[in-house]
Amino acid sequence: QVQLVESGGGLVQAGGSLRLSCAASTRTFSSYDMAWFRQAPGKEREFVSVIRWYGGNTYYADSVKGRFTISRDSAKNTVYLQLNRLKPEDTAVYYCAADGRVRGGVPTSPGEYGYWGQGTQVTVSS
């Protein structure tokens, strides 16, 4: 069982930055794909970014590419999402997700992750 706890959300003006953190309670953190999703009111949960356990490759949704950066610190069992040049349309609850299964392709669907955090609110004002 893996518990994930997000932090770092808040209210920021358009063009500003935030850094989200997700602390994982597992001794095998380095063996999990770690991802961020977000869900705006009335919308489905959508993929934002993932950092693979094998090789550390990173992938981003087109809507955040070049503005957001995902990273992980295995010594702290923590994954980060740096949000830069924020836009009002980035407003959402951001969720951290983890999964240790071996699979091909890039896991971008919520159903491909077995563990979820409680979410942290990011609000971007115009």
Descriptive report:
It is a single chain. By secondary structure, the protein is mostly beta strands. The chain is 0% helix and 47% strand. It contains no helices and eleven strands. Strands 2, 4, 5, 6, 9, 10 and 11 form a seven-stranded mixed sheet that branches. A hairpin with a 4-residue loop joins strand 7 (68-73) and strand 8 (78-83). The chain is globular, with a radius of gyration of 14 Å. The mean pLDDT is 95.
Please outline what is shown here:
By secondary structure, the chain is an all-beta fold.
Helices and strands, with pairings:
Elements lengths: L3 E4 L2 E4 L4 E7 L8 E7 L6 E6 L6 E3 L7 E6 L4 E6 L8 E8 L15 E2 L3 E6 L1
Parallel strand pairs: 2-11
Antiparallel strand pairs: 1-3, 3-8, 4-5, 4-9, 5-6, 7-8, 9-10, 9-11
Briefly note the structural class of the backbone: mainly beta
- Kindly provide the radius of gyration, computed on alpha-carbon positions and rounded to a whole number of angstroms: 14 Å
How far is the N terminus from the C terminus? 40 Å
State the order of secondary-structure elements, H for helix, E for strand: EEEEEEEEEEE
State which percent range the strand residues make up: over 45%
Count of strand segments: 11
Tell me the major beta sheet. 7 strands, mixed
Which segments are poorly predicted (pLDDT under 50) over 5 or more consecutive residues? none
General shape: globular
Mean pLDDT: 95
